[in-house]
């Protein structure tokens, strides 16, 4: 057992790799006929009333419009032996554990899919709505806004559960293929000051520029779904309009190329990766189009067919936390703080007084799917890029790595980041 956040985090990488071995059994040689069933569904989740936007503590009022709709999209898969799983991608900052647990419990009760067979993936857009229990202390809204957030979160829960059912009902014969492309607009924000970047400067520090792509085709060869990812924060925009940020514009561009297909984005290990420069709609659109072009090139240049074999694994790595602060310490921190720091200390104090104690550990979800010979690893939290690089060293460069999945509770720093200190 470890007794501090730092030691727990440094142990997380080998623990995750041990968990991933649960699903790393031998896979048969790929076949031309993949023998898959697949179903796709989507629902518009754009708030119907003005609400507070998530992601930045500095905002001081609700949303004032939209650049484009926000979506929840679902892809159901069934292999040749009848094994099933569903991927859900959502244009939100993340899923809090309470919401994720409720959704996954209901999916298991209604559709028989346990937690290994459902992935809840957030794009981490900073221009989506605040959700209940997710960093609420960051935002300076009142009771009326809190009630809107509660209503919206309850609606989103129902819509995602229904979405899973709709995707399962749409199951039909399909072929799956996978490959990795490349896009290079992500910059390691720890090693590069935004103000110092110039066109002639080569950014420093580690990044993961892979663009993982999974396609679903029907019997006639038409694309039904294009799933793709990228390891970069969705933080181009910081205004007051609903927007999927660059992932939203990328999905729009992919669907313009293939109008009958549903485009689905997932975020990689982007905790220390920013799109730079940023802060304009034109840049968000540019990065989206750049990512879409990488997806299109990957699809058009040929992809690897995946045999109809699905295997899944799921575990939770329990992080031991530093000893929690006392009520006296929290009161002192409240007295010397302002803004969201003051509100968050107050929230901790209220929890301590209501429950008598604060948590001393936290379970981080770790998951793995194998689609034929394609590995997909999903991690909870805001995970720094070194985890993706280490996973790919272990499982191969073609591995798909997703973060912000099933629970977004905090940053998950690497050993290097812990030693360096700083924001993450």
Please tag this protein with its features.
single chain; 424 residues; alpha+beta; nine-stranded mixed sheet; 17 strands; 32% helix; 25% strand
Give me the secondary-structure topology.
Layout: H1 5-20, E1 36-44, E2 71-78, E3 84-90, H2 97-111, E4 118-122, H3 143-169, E5 172-182, E6 186-188, E7 210-217, E8 223-230, H4 245-257, E9 262-267, E10 273-275, H5 281-300, E11 304-306, E12 310-320, H6 327-335, H7 339-355, E13 361-371, E14 374-379, E15 382-383, H8 385-395, E16 400-402, E17 411-412, H9 415-420
Parallel strand pairs: 3-4, 8-9, 14-16, 15-17
Antiparallel strand pairs: 1-2, 1-5, 2-3, 5-7, 5-11, 6-10, 7-8, 12-13, 13-14
Describe this structure in words.
- The chain is an alpha+beta fold and 424 residues long.
- The chain is 32% helix and 25% strand.
- The protein is built from 9 helices and 17 strands.
- The strands form 4 sheets. Strands 1, 2, 3, 4, 5, 7, 8, 9 and 11 form a 9-stranded mixed sheet that branches.
- A hairpin with a 5-residue loop joins strand 2 and strand 3.
- The chain is globular and about 65 Å long.
- The protein starts with a helix and ends with a helix.
- The N terminus is likely disordered.
